[in-house]
Structures are given as C-alpha cells and as structure tokens.
Amino acid sequence: MKSAVDAYTTDGYNSPSIEGYKVTPALIECVKSDSWNPDDIDTDLAHPDAMAARRYWQSFQTVR
Questions:
Q1: What is each CA distance from 27 to 9, 10, 20, in whole angstroms?
Q2: What is the tens place of the pLDDT at every residue in 9-35?
Q3: With contact defined as beta carbons under 8 Å apart, do 49 and 22 qualify?
Q4: Of the residues 4, 27, 33, 49, which has the maximum number of CB atoms within 10 A of its CB?
C-alpha cells in the first residue's frame, strides 16, 4: 500500500495525461488538498483538467 501511495503523484499525472488532459504535478497535488475548491473558486470549477485530476484522486481514495 505504501508504494501505491508513494506513486500517486506520478500515476495521477500519467492517467489523466493519457486521456488527453493537461495536468501538472502541482495540479495533481492541489486537487488532493484542501486548496482546490470548485465551490468557491470559479477558476477551479472551470478547469476541466483539474476536474479530471480530482476524479482520479477520488478514484484512488475509493480503491485505497
């Protein structure tokens, strides 16, 4: 489990990238933290790449 958690940023970058989203390691870290807030920050809501990265984070948490 530790190796899966350690690899999250790399996997979280690669998976959405393969699907055509433009993500960065910084964006991957942002969406798993409390700093990404589409309810209050309009640019977070309007950023489809961030939303794809967030869905990856949520999926990762479900599987974990």
A1: 10, 12, 15
A2: 888 888 888 889 888 888 888 888 767
A3: yes
A4: 27
